[in-house]
Amino acid sequence: MLSHLLTSIINDIHGDTITLRKLLERCGREGMLLVCAIACLPFLIPVSIPGVSTVFGAAIVLLSTALFLDRLPWLPQRILDKDLDANKLKPVLHKGVGMVGKLDRWLQPRWSGLTTSPMQRFNSAVLVFGGLLLMAPLGLIPFSNTVPAVGILLLTVGMMQRDGVFVLLGYLGHVLTVVYFGVLAYLAWVGGNFVLS
Predict the structure, then answer these.
(1) DSSP-derived 3-state class of residue 105
(2) Is residue 143 scored above 80 in pLDDT?
(3) Residue ranges in the chain assigned as alpha helix (H)
(4) Residues 6+ apart with CB under 8 A from 140
(5) CA distances from 153 to 73, 148, 174, 178 (A)
(6) Where in the chain are the domains?
(7) pLDDT: which is higher, 57 or 152
(8) Cβ distance 157 to 100 under 8 Å?
(9) Quick check: helix, strand or coil at residue 1?
(10) Angle at the Cα of 146 (from 144 to 148), degrees rounded to 5?
């Protein structure tokens, strides 16, 4: 159960700060997808943690690239060792346990063709794209981090649990993110032309 695994990770967080390196060490290589899922949780609730979007988005990109290349991850020390406020992060993760717990009851192995080779590489490539969307500097715009985070979370839990339905939902989340960002870009363009005219 994903919620039980996430709870055990939260209970292992001690002190005032936590680094991504410690989370990775706790999860191991098999937990790279879990770390990607954890990185999405702060963006699913209305709590702002400064600097998290860039750090976690970059981590998702690099971890997904490692999955795509089927090798152990390499992350810059700047990302691995950046101190995150554990006192702000833990409550967010606790709320994330509830969200993941709701997903647990729906997850089951099905449509496994979407979670096995060669689709594993394609799914990893989609995760890389999702991480880049999450890193977009649009933090002040409503849902600009939430929409890509939902797509990443659905895709990662689908890959972890071999659930092709959730993988498809993750694809849909990424498509909706591109549409949403496209609408924002169009509105900015129209607004800019209006101001200039």
Answers:
(1) coil
(2) no
(3) 2-11, 20-27, 32-40, 52-69, 77-80, 86-104, 119-135, 146-160, 164-196
(4) none
(5) 19, 9, 11, 16
(6) 2-196
(7) 152
(8) yes
(9) coil
(10) 80
Distance in angstroms (rounded) separating the CA atoms of residues 178 and 189? 16
pLDDT band at 49 (very low <50, low <70, confident <90, very high): low
Helix axes 52-69, 32-40, angle to 10 degrees: 150
How far apart, in whole angstroms, are the C-alpha atoms of residue 108 and residue 183? 35
73-114 pLDDT tens trace = 666 777 777 777 777 777 777 776 776 677 777 777 788 778
Q: 51, exposed or middle or buried, with CB in 10 Å at 0-12, 13-18, 19+?
A: exposed
Structure token pair of residue 41: 């949780």
pLDDT, tens digit (0-9, with 9 covering 90-100), for 156-185: 888 888 888 888 999 999 999 889 888 888
